[in-house]
Design brief:
The protein is of the alpha/beta class and about 425 residues long. The protein is built from 16 helices and 9 strands. Helix 7 crosses helix 15 and helix 15 runs antiparallel to helix 16. The model has no long low-confidence stretch (mean pLDDT about 95).
């Protein structure tokens, strides 16, 4: 038999998932799953680390990108990405849901779900009367890409819940798939999951009551165990869904603006013209022979790897800052590029350092170089608004950061969850 886990939350589902995305994909590959979907709540934050782990270890497992959502605390769905258009759609839904709410939360609307055209929809009934309403509503909008996803965690209500899901599937003529609702890669993480839940609810573990997991069935489970819990056709349906999901993060490529090139120029000739102009500014007394050769080598590699637009885009942004008198500074490995110096992206004279261009651009890495540019804090918003205006909001985005506990805060919160007295916690933290 084969199986694909279609509902799996990592530690990026804050205070819910008890395992790293890396651990989840490694364990799933060890169990010989066909695929695993990292589906954190209103987030795709965990998918990159999962993808990198699969690539690094050359794991024989497919990764599916998705996310889980609650709608009005009544309807739980998982959206999966079968194609690149679905990934764009999912990111748009996450963005809109986050914008509507305070930091750290989200608000999904019925319109968000109604507007789904490319994502697959897994519906997880919650065993309430409202399930009939949501089953009817979802089937009206997503009949050709909607499944009932059944979770079995060996609880006392498993049989009743499964029967309920089967009735809903029959009522609305929907296929059923198995899923685990995974929160951890191994059963040993159950105590940690209890602690996370206690921190989330602001109480100690012994006060959670029915709020904590009754067993470790929310961990990834071996195939022979799954075959005893789920119907074989439900397990097969999970792999069928996985087969339909062809999107891979490797499909995403940088696509830079092309309108920066003036008439009469190619990307190569325009970049060279800017570099030649910058050479006269940076080296008014003439370009040393070794620097000239370095520039030629860099330009040749930039042309070979087709990074022209990348350099031209960064140059355009820093020129805006320069013209407005906004302080900026290129830093990091870009300081190893004489081209960056000539384009006024960096201010480090290559004659003063030992330039190692391979630190900046390499054929072996097969990825664009990383140019970090800092702008003065007080006027950074001007640069952001310029980017939005010049390139369009549909092609510009702010990178999100994931906040984590500092060590002392983590010790204090975990200590409270374990029922340790404040005085003892203070002693632990100080020592």
């Amino acid at each position: 038999m084969s199986y694909a886990e279609l509902f799996c939350q990592s530690n990026f589902s804050f205070l819910t998932g008890a395992s790293h995305a890396e651990e989840l994909v490694l364990q799933a590959a060890f169990y010989r799953y066909q695929a695993i979907a990292i589906t954190d709540e209103c987030s795709v934050a965990g998918v990159v680390k999962a993808h990198a782990t699969i690539e690094q270890h050359k794991l024989d497992i497919k990764q599916i990108v998705g996310s889980m959502f609650w709608l009005n605390d009544e309807c739980q769905v998982v959206l999966l990405c079968p194609c690149r258009k679905a990934y764009a759609e999912l990111c748009r839904i996450i963005t809109n849901a986050r914008r509507r709410s305070e930091k750290g939360s989200y608000q999904l609307s019925e319109w968000d779900l109604m507007s789904v055209r490319h994502c697959f929809v897994l519906w997880l009934p919650i065993n309430q009367d409202n399930d009939h309403y949501w089953g009817r509503w979802l089937s009206q909008h997503h009949i050709n890409r909607l499944w009932v996803a059944v979770q079995r965690h060996l609880g006392g209500d498993d049989d009743a819940y499964t029967t309920h899901c089967e009735r809903l599937a029959n009522e609305f003529q929907l296929p059923i798939t198995a899923c685990g609702g995974v929160l951890m890669h191994a059963v040993e993480r159950l105590p940690l999951q209890h602690v996370l839940t206690a921190v989330k609810h602001g109480c100690s573990v012994d006060k959670l009551g029915f709020g904590r997991l009754s067993n470790a069935e929310r961990a990834l489970r071996p195939l022979n165990k799954l075959s005893r819990i789920y119907k074989s056709e439900w397990l097969e349906e999970s792999t069928h869904i996985a087969d339909l999901c062809e999107f891979n993060l490797s499909d995403l490529k940088y696509e830079y603006p092309t309108e920066l090139i003036p008439d009469g120029y190619t990307p190569t000739s325009y970049l060279r013209m800017l570099v030649e102009r910058g050479k006269k500014l940076r080296f008014p007394e003439g370009v040393p022979a070794d620097i000239h050769q370095t520039i030629e080598n860099e330009l040749a590699l930039i042309e070979e790897l087709e990074y022209h637009y990348y350099f031209l885009t960064i140059h355009d942004i820093v020129m805006f800052a320069k013209q407005r008198g906004i302080l900026y500074q290129g830093r990091g490995s870009a300081a190893n590029s004489v081209v960056c110096y000539c384009l006024e992206i960096t201010a480090v004279d290559p004659r003063q350092i030992s330039v190692l261009f391979e630190r900046f651009i390499s054929r072996e890495r097969e990825e664009p170089p990383d140019i970090d540019v800092d702008f003065e804090h007080e006027r950074r918003e001007e640069v952001i608004q310029y980017i939005y205006k010049k390139y369009g909001r549909e092609r510009a985005a702010l990178a999100a950061t994931v906040i984590s506990y500092r060590f002392k805060s983590a010790v204090r919160e975990v200590g409270k969850a374990l029922g340790i007295e404040e005085t003892q916690l203070d002693f632990f933290i100080k020592t």
